DNA/RNA non-specific endonuclease (Candidatus Methylobacter titanis), 292 residues
Amino acid sequence: MRKKNSLLGLLTLLPRLFRLGRKHPVLLLVIFGLGLGGYGYEVKIARPALLYQGAPQALDAKNIDTWFRILRNHGFILGYSDLRGNPLWVEYALSPETNTPPLKRPSRFETDWRGINRVSHDSYQKSGYDRGHMAPNYAISHLYGREGQADSFLMTNITPQKPKLNQQLWQRLEEMEIKYFAKNHGKIWVITGPVFSGTVERLSSDWTVEIPDAFYKIYITEAAPGNTPLTLGFLIPQTVNGKEPLEQFVTSIDHIEAQTGLDFFAQLDDRTEAALEAAVKPQSWDLQAINK
């Protein structure tokens, strides 16, 4: 509600600024300069702080299925597709868990005022699909507080997941990433999102929301200068029974890029990027021991 009221206030303010600018053009130039400064801060400072080696890029700029708008939130950032009613990628950083008291889980998800298609909590009602977090409630609320938790419950962070995936295997992976991956490796970066392939299928309860066929997660450590980061990739279909071992779904980042049409870590030098994205080395993450 706070963000919606801010938007209404801005729409009310614009005509007043136009009238003021006609009377005082110098003042209008000052306001315009401040606006450019705000945009520069967003693009050059605020967004890069939430990204590791740049934002994901579409491999084919002409493919509208991979078009997205970047939305910055408290503690995470995402690329949202209004065409698909899904975030195509969500990125956040994890550090070792602290003894922060847990926050009460909100009872409802909120429509994001920035979303053109106005997906709501009720859009998933009786659809047979869960509202699946991409930036997870538990980790975001522990590391980024109540404001981060509230942003994680915006519908632009949500995608349709079958219950056995969302409530079992995906939940297990979300728990492992903060309790074990971050604990063992220090600060790590996570990129996650849906994968679409084959025939387009949409929610019966809201045609603006497309149903993914699978989901991916990419982990990369923030290595010290001169050291090579460690990476780990998962590609998990909607059809899981929820009890499978996680190592069954390990894959390369190259394979995830081929499935999503997105290019990750574009700012890495080409040689390092090629080596990291081709590698499949789950041993460094001790998956078998963690699974037990």
